[in-house]
Amino acid sequence: MDDRERKPYVHRLWGLSIVVVLVFSILGFNLWRLQIAQGSYYSAMAKGNVMQLVKVQPTRGDIVDRNGKLLVTSVPEFALNLDWMDLQQSKISNWKDVVQRLAGYIRPDWPNPNQSVDSIAEDIFANIQNHQWERYRPVTILNNVPPDLQAIIAEHQEELPGVSVDAIPVRSYPQKTLGGQFLGYVREIGDKEIAQFNQNADAQKAGFEYAQGDLVGKDGVEKSYDFWLRGKEGVQQVEVDNNARPVSKQVIQAPEAGKTVQLTIDADLQKTVEDSLDQVIANVQKNTNPNAKSGAAVVIDVNTGKVLAMASRPGMDPNDLIGNISQAVSDKYFTDKTAPAASLNRALTGLYPPGSVFKMVTAMASLQLKVTTPDERIRDVLSSLGNLASQQQGFPEWGGNDFGLVNLYRALALSSDIYFEVIGRRVFEANPETIGQIAHEFGLGVESGIDLPGEAKGIAPSAEWKKAYFGPTYEKSRDAKLAAIESKYAPLLAQAQDAKSKQKLQTKKDAEKNDVAVWYKQKTSENVDWKVYDSYNNAIGQGYNTYTPLQLANYVATLVNGGKHYRPYVVDKLLDPITGKVTQQYQPKVLNTVSVSPDILDTVKKGMAAVTTGEGTANFMSIDMPEFTGGAKTGTAQIGSKDTISGEIYNGVFVAFAPYDHPQIAFAGVVEFGSHGGDTAGKVAEAAFMKYFGWKSSKGG
C-alpha cells in the first residue's frame, strides 16, 4: 500500500486517538474534581444518608369467648396509600400533578361529598405535610376503598406513581354490641397516652416502647391486653438522604401476629343477659318511666372469680369507633347530650346505691358484734326506733307495711327496713367502723383489681370516713374566714391611736373569730359528725353507700363460697395464633378471707334463701323456675335524698346465687329508674340462671 492509500487511515487513527485522549481527559478531570477538589463535600453528602428503622405493623390477635366463639378479629380492608419513595423515583416531573389527578379520581368516594377536587387535593397536601417527619412511610389517603375505585386506580396506575391500594388488617367485631364495653375498641394512640402505655410491665419486660402513630386498645380487653394482642412488629430498613428523601428500603424482620385472647366470658350467656336487660328496660320505659334507658348486670363464678357475663346498657358497637367518627357517633358514645353515654361500662364504672341488697352486710356485722341473734324478734313499727327524735331520723317501713314481729330470716325475706334500722344503729353505736370494715372485706367500696381499665371504687361509709371526707371542706373554709379576719384587723390595730382604741378593735376581732368558731362547730355537727340518721340510712343500703354491679356480684359470691374474696377477671388464657397452644394461663387469686365466721355466713345465706320462697320478696324465683335452689335479695334503691325531687325515684337492684348447695354462680343487676329490683333486674337474673343451668320456666319458656 503506497502513501496515498495509507493517508486516510492515518488521519482516522489520529482522529480516534484524539477522541480517546479527550474522553479520558474529561473522565480524569471529573474524577479529580469529585475525589479531590470536591471530595469533602460529597463525602459529607454520603455521610448524610442515614438508615431509618420503620415498624411493620403485625396482624392484631383475635379475642374469643370461653368456648372459642369469635368475638373480635382483624379483617382485610383496602386502603389508598401514597408512597413517597415510589413517587419521587418516578419519571413524573411534578408530583403535585399526581396528587391533583388522584383527587379527581377519589372525589366520588371522599367522605365529604361537597368538597371540590382542588379542596380534596389541599387536604391530601395537608396530610402529607403532617407526615413530613416520616416521609419514608406511606401516607394513607383513604380507608375502606370500594371495588370500583380500586379498579380506577389500577387502570390509571402509570399516571399515579406511588399510589397503591393495599390490604391492611382492620379491627372487626362480628357480634356487634355483644360485650362491646368490656371488649373495647382500637384507635391511634394519643400523645398523652404514650407514657401511660409505656408503663405496661409486659412491654417494659420485652423492651417494647409505644410511639406516635401506633394503634392501641382504647378500653376494655383491647386496652388491658394491648401488648399481647398487638403482636410483634416487623422492621423495615429505609435509607434516607440528608433531605429525608427515601433512597432504598428492605424488610429485615417480618412481623408476628398477636396472641389470641380467650375470655372467661360465655358469649351465649352474655347474649341472654343483654337481651333480657334490653327487654326489661323497654318494659320500664313503656309502663313506668320513659327515662329508663340504662342498666347493667354481672354473672360471676363464685369459686374462681371468673366473670361469665358483664352487660351494660345502652349498648356499644365498637365497629362504630373504627376510623373517622362523626359528631353524632361521638355524642352517642361519649357524652350525655341526647342519651346516656353508651361507651360507659356501667357494670364496672357505674356507682349505684345498693338499697336493700346491702342488708346482708348489716346482718353479718350485727351477728359478729353480738348485738342481736338470728332469732331475736323486733316489732316492725316505727316506735321500735326509740323516742320521737329517733323516729324522726329514721324511715317508716317500705310500702306502708307492718310485718309484725320479724327475726333475721324473716327480715331478709320481707326486706324489713325497721328491723335493719334497729340493728344497724346498735352496730354503729357498738363500733362505728365494723360495717365499713366488713363491706371492704367482701369487696364493697374497694377496687377489685379486675383486669379491665376504668374500675370505680365506690364508698363503704363509716364515722371515720365521713369525718375524713367532709371535714377538710369546713376546715378550709374556717381557716379562710380566720385569715380574712387577721388581714382585716392587722393594719387597724397597727394604726390604733391609743390603748383604749386598740382594745376596742381587739374585742371586735375576738368576737368575729368566736362567730367563726360557732359557725364551724355548727357545720361540723350538722355535716361531719356521725348522726343517728346516718346509722339508719347506711344500715339499709342508702346514705353514702355506692357500689358497682361487679362489686355487688363479687360480694354475694364471697358470702356463699365460704368467705373467700376472689379477684374477678375476664381473660382466661393467651393462645398461640398459629398452633392454638396455651402460652399463658391465668389462675384464680384469693385477695382475702373474710373475718366473718362460717356460722354467720351460713345464717345469712339461709336468710337469702328465704327471700326466694314463701312470703319472700323474690319468691317468683321458685315459682317461675321449679328447679331453682339458691338465694337472692331484692333492692329498691332511692336515688336522691329524702324530701328531694330524686328522692321519689328508685333504681331496681337485685342479687342472687345458685344452687343453694355448692353454689356455682352469683348475679348482680341494676336497672336505672327500675323501681323494685324483683320486677326488673330480677327478671334478668331469671334469664341468666335458666340459660346457665338449662332450667325450664313454669311459664313454658
UniProtKB/TrEMBL annotation:
The chain crosses the membrane at residues 12-32. SUPFAM superfamilies: beta-lactamase/transpeptidase-like, Penicillin binding protein dimerisation domain. It comes from the Bacteria. Its main location: membrane. GO terms for biological process: cell wall organization; peptidoglycan biosynthetic process; proteolysis; regulation of cell shape. Residues 295-689 form the Penicillin-binding protein transpeptidase domain. GO terms for molecular function: penicillin binding; peptidoglycan L,D-transpeptidase activity; serine-type D-Ala-D-Ala carboxypeptidase activity. The keyword Cell membrane applies. Residues 56-249 form the Penicillin-binding protein dimerisation domain. GO terms for cellular component: plasma membrane. Keywords: Cell inner membrane, Cell membrane, Cell shape, Cell wall biogenesis/degradation, Hydrolase, Membrane, Peptidoglycan synthesis, Protease, Transmembrane, Transmembrane helix. Belongs to the transpeptidase family. This is Penicillin-binding protein 2 (PBP-2). It comes from Desulfosporosinus metallidurans.
